[in-house]
Description:
Order of helices and strands: EEEEEEEEH
Strand content: 35-45%
Helix content: under 10%
Radius of gyration: 15 Å
Structural class: mainly beta
Distance between the termini: 34 Å
Shape: globular
Strand order of the largest sheet: 1-2-3-4-5-6-7-8
Amino acid sequence: MQDDSSDPDTTDDHAAVWIDGHDQEEYNGLYRRDSAHLGSPVYKQDRSDAGESKYCYRCEKLGANRNDWFINDSHEPDSNKCRAFIASKGPLPTGRNTWQFYDGNAWVACSLKVTKHVRPHRSFPEVPLGDFLSLRRRQTK
């Protein structure tokens, strides 16, 4: 499935991404930029209600010249293990794309949507970039 975002991907400049569409709810939600590894951002979903975190990061040490983005229970950039992945030699693919998800028995296709988030003003909640732009267009009419 192709990226359905209409603007160039500048995900690396954003403080957070929203991931949605995973069959296991704990992998959906807001991932904030936590750190960087080999020049790419590491996004962390803090699930303090569940006492655990999830991570979205680029993994380059897989051999066979692969560059993938992983979603995983921990940040392990030197490991080939993950819960979901998408092949991408560039920034984290945004929009709706087909990821591969390990369901415990086999790898299955999973349609996930990754949305860039803007850094909020302290008096406003975080809003997906597309929603912010549509609100802005309505205000200027």
